């Protein structure tokens, strides 16, 4: 399931990170790696604020679609 389709406030586990090499590296450097727990804190338009590894990270819709939970 793509991150953009999940419910806010629930915990999910990252199963895969897709996209080209630079996109995967960028997401990985922010903590988006398979096996990590995350939750969507809020949504604004297509953008998400996500809690991952104790930090809150803002993702635009394009990046959020690269995270599979």
Automatic annotation (TrEMBL):
Leader peptide range in chain numbering: none
Pfam short name (any one): FeoA
One of the record's GO molecular function terms: transition metal ion binding
Lineage top rank: taxon: Bacteria
Keyword Iron: yes
Annotated keywords: Iron
Residue ranges annotated for the Ferrous iron transporter FeoA-like domain, each copy included: 1-69
SUPFAM superfamilies the record matches: C-terminal domain of transcriptional repressors
Protein name: Ferrous iron transport protein A
Organism: Denitrobacterium detoxificans
């Amino acid at each position: 399931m793509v991150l953009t389709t999940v419910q806010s406030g629930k915990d999910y586990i990252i199963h895969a990170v897709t996209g080209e090499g630079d996109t995967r590296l960028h997401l990985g450097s922010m903590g988006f790696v398979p096996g990590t727990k995350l939750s969507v804190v809020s949504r604004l338009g297509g953008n998400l604020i996500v809690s991952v590894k104790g930090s809150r990270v803002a993702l635009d819709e394009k990046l959020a679609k690269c995270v599979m939970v």
